[in-house]
Amino acid sequence: MRTIQGSADGRGLKIGVVISRFNEKITDRLLEGALRALDDCGVESDDITVVSVPGAIEIPGVAKKLVSQVDAIVTLGAVVRGETEHFTYVCKAAQEGMIQVALESGVPMTFGVLTTENSAQALDRTGGAHGHKGYEVAKDAVELANTYKLIGSPQLGD
Ligand code: INI
Predict the structure, then answer these.
(1) Residue 129 has pLDDT above 70, yes or no
(2) Which of its termini does the chain have fewer beta carbons within 10 Å around, N or C?
(3) Which CATH topology does 15-150 take?
């Protein structure tokens, strides 16, 4: 049996962060947490590319342009049901688009797009009662970048 789990060591990794500005009060918090996690993992500031987009729907397209330059991508956004009649459409477009880019490119991507009923729930998940999604998904991206490298390494007989 072999067990593979990437480490949380971000040294030498290049990480892309795609952040949408819609509901900026929340997405600013997501970005702060994500950058803190990358710093905690030892990712060099020069190895981080942050791309800002208007809303969650734009995330997959930009992620697709970025994949060739990074080892993993962190996506951050906030879709709040109370603020849009097309909540389901925005969530679906962002999620399906992202998964498509991740699978087609073979570059790991983590999903930090909050989908909540209201702003209070989103704030709870960005440093409130329910942890910090931005921090978590950035740390996950580092682990996944290392996991993909391990699976592809000759020592493991890929
Ligand atoms: N984009 C979001 O990221 N969150 C939302 O809650 C949201 N709402 O409420 O509509 C939203 N809409 C904008 C959308 O993502 C695109 O930016 C826009 O349609 C332009 O393409």
Answers:
(1) yes
(2) N
(3) Rossmann fold (3.40.50)
